[in-house]
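User: ok so my PI wants both of these folded by tonight, can you help

Assistant: No problem, let's get them done. Here's the first:
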Amino acid sequence: MAGRMASRIDDAARLWLPRQLAGEPEASREFAVIRAVAATALVAFPTVPLALSVALPVSLALPVGAALVGAAALIAAVGGIAYQRNRTLVRAVAASRNLPVDDGARHYDCFAGLVTIHDIRGSVTSVHGRDAETYLAWMRNPGGRGFIEQIHVSDRILFMQAIDALRQGNRQATIDIRLEHPNVFTGGEQFVHMRCEMTALGEVDGEFAILVQSRDVSEEARLRAEAIHKTGLAETANDAKTRFLAAVSHELRTPLNAILGFSDILSGEYFGKLENDRQREYVSLINQSGAHLLSVVNTMLDMSKIEAGRYELIPEPFRVADVVNACEAMLGLQAREKGVQLTSRIMRSVGEVNADQRAIQQILINLVGNAIKFTDRGGLVTIDAEINGGNLSLIVSDTGIGIAENKLSSLGQPFVQIQNDYTRKYEGTGLGLSLVKGLVALHGGQFDIRSRPGEGTVITVTIALDGSGIVGIDEQEPVEQTMVEFPPRLKERTRIKTNGQTYPEASRWDADGMNGGAGHDGSQAKTA
């Protein structure tokens, strides 16, 4: 009778216990624990309610007693099974360590992490490692096929491919896998990231053996995923910033057109003379401020296009002297008014270059404009053009305030200016050099700057003469299809004041060049 009852308890326990995994020992001790708990519960089920009926009404004693017996039986069964499984795992690990694959297996216990020896099918034949007990505290028994069955399904193929590669002659392999974490609490990770260093041991006792050293790299995986996420956020923010600057700059040009146009009409006194000189001065200041703002807006548009990969260069052959002379014609008056001498030296060997003429002229205008702005009265700004092999070098040097060496690395970043007590009085947005560096990069050229405080600055721009370094728009970084296409830029208009009268100056991009005379050193020199 007792044997039949135990058999029925075992049948019910098989339905309740999880399915036995390959490589795990027989769970006979677990069934013994369940039988003992069931026998105790059968005795306690009528006894406990009867004892409680002494202090409680019968209607209350029966359900309370039954609930207490059931809860105690369940807790006892779970605790007993957990204890037996832990003892079984410890005995299995000890047994595997007592059966090494080769004579040197005892040395594997000195290795960091979890060290397992696998056969040609991937089954674990022994477990070693300095930190084996730490890993086995949360893992199921890795013996036999137990290790492979704990690997994430999508990573098992990678693990078996590595074993196959070692079997075919490779000496070592390194893979990252995910192992299931059986005791997952709320907020815990379901998988543990492991890095497996696999080494082929060759034939040991007639069996092909593979040593696998596994280490927990979950923190590294978390940091890598966090870095990827933050990189994506940074790229998204940068794209949003570029689109914002492009949209704002585009919208600013519409009212600027009205400001410049109507201030030109008022300055020309086409509809009646202004009453006094102060009104004329104010109108001139409005026009100059509008022209400066237009320059800033156009620079922001160009920077937005470069960052978005939408700035298209149109290479064509042109004379370098024409661009240099045009730059001098536009900035010569500014230099004279400030008392700065502007000169150019063009070597006789400098002829034509294949590049985007508008971009090269914009590079020179920004560099020379900065040089004039930061050079005191009586200083010198020089533009040099020379040939070095197959490259054209444009050199802009000045005798201005200079830049400290520790500040040179931050130059060329958008909206960054080198500020100190002396340079704070100079206006600007910090976009000039950033635009120059972007345009030079699109030409596949190089940008170099050397400077000393109080002595001056020398900036060298080098590009290929044949235009071989020009980056096509297809080679630039791809952008979203929703990027705004900008209409043609407005021409910047300024006013030149001479003897109390104002005359319209040539457009920045339409200024005509002037030819300079030949110097004794084989260069063309001219002073503005």
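One down. Here's the second:
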Amino acid sequence: MTGSRRGLWRLLALLFAFSLIAAACGGGDDDDADGGSTDAGTQTADDDMSDEDMADEDMSDEAEPEDEGSIGGGITQEALEEDAAEGEGDMADEDMADDGMVSVNIDDFDLSTIDGIWELAAAQRGAIVANLTAGMEAGEYGVGDDGILRGPSGFEIDMNECPADWSDTTGITDDTIRIGQTTVKSGNLAAYGDITVGWENYYEYVNATGGVDGKDMVLISRDDGYVAAQTIEFIDELIESENVFALHTLGSPNTLAVYDQINDECIPQVMVATGHPAWGDPVNHPWTTGMQMSYSTEAILWGNWIRQNLADELPVKVAGLVMDNDFGLAYELGFEAYAHANPDVVSEFVPVRHDPAAPTLTNEVTTIAAASPDVFISMTAGNPCLLAIQEVDASGLLDDLSVAFTPSVCRAVAAYMAPAGDSADGWWNVGGGVKDSTDPQHVDEPFIAFLRGELADRGLDPEISLLGTGYYFAYPHTEAIRVAVELPGGLTRTNFILAARSLDIYHPLLLDGINFAADGAVDGYYIEGSDFSQYDADGQTWDIVGDIVDVNGGSPNCAWDKDNGGCR
């Protein structure tokens, strides 16, 4: 074993052992750089981890993590086992309220109709508003005389550190609420641009039905081409020239490149379109929240699936096709940590990285096939997901595998699965509980029928999955803004971030049994559960196999160490 590899294992051991401590203590982020990415957003694990970086010189090479299968930002093995033993997958009212808190019984609402969904949404917003208002009126929440913004469960922001010219109401005019966004609309990941189109379509509906607080929602979007340097430039423009109220970003390397700056500027960056574990950091990056299931959680659930379903073959060799940037690194580190902690499940993990801009993946898949893995996991995004499915089949590797996974970010049927044809049949996905708005099993559900109708009415194709994904992001983002409007002082940036850190709502684009909730400084992740689904190419649908896993609140927060590529 080389020195750098020993250093990696030793770092992962520390991450496991100290992830809970970091979450509880909220260790400060001492990084000075604006981001941890190169211009192309590329970072590799081995380049960034060396023995010299280790804090504990006495830890032996054989040291094992304290907690099997968990790093910061990923669900703990203990939480997984408790969920399996106690059957806590169903959303329960007792999970949604603490003593003395206003709560809503979802059984009181008819969720088989769109009107029932709107009524539940209004009731849940009302409960959140009541609870936050009570805290604000008691002097426990809100900005105090000392300039500290306080919220539920120890959430705090020192507003004294905000820029001198900062305003709580920037981006709000008499007629509009301006949200700035950077995303990718060109290159290998261009399909993700449809998320913005879907988001804008939802805003068109909201604005046509009265807006929010009588104001139109406006999304000002810029195409950064998935290049972090371009993201930085556009974020500067959105802040300085467009004077936006809040910001939204897509992509792990892109978001890592700007989230320090955005937090220094005291601008909400809510529900970013990336599952990197770094967004679960309410202490050091209080203005930034993620949205989807953490990639660390996904990696652990891959391992858990292998443990349970390939028991007769264990331990197995696993190969990962990894996008060579911060996004892929999060997946790679998460699964490598699981593999190291569970040698009875994974005998060897072989990651093979690819250039995000590569037009083909033939060489990488050939390398993987030569390693003769039992399990293949695609740890990439965008068009490379489709290429991976096609190449794995064309190489003959698929016939020799016990299972092949495509990642949660490439669940969209129309964008990635259907174009692969029969090559996609039988692939597995740990999807974070997200419904595909083009999947035949969901198209008649009231909210999906509503969004499909809205898309069609405005000349868009409802058979494009990622347009529905735009609604997946826009719906809870707008709900948080609606909550902020009703808080004392009305819509402000500080009220918006309090609302975002307090959301506990029914999300109509999540499978039943998956909670959507955050809790101040304690729980920085909205979604901590998933389905396990297998793709049926004939039906062009995802078939759920087994039970839904949901361990809401079971993921340690993550203070991301950009220099060493892991949680502290």
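The longest helix spans residues 114-137. The chain is about 35% helix and 15% strand. Good luck tonight!
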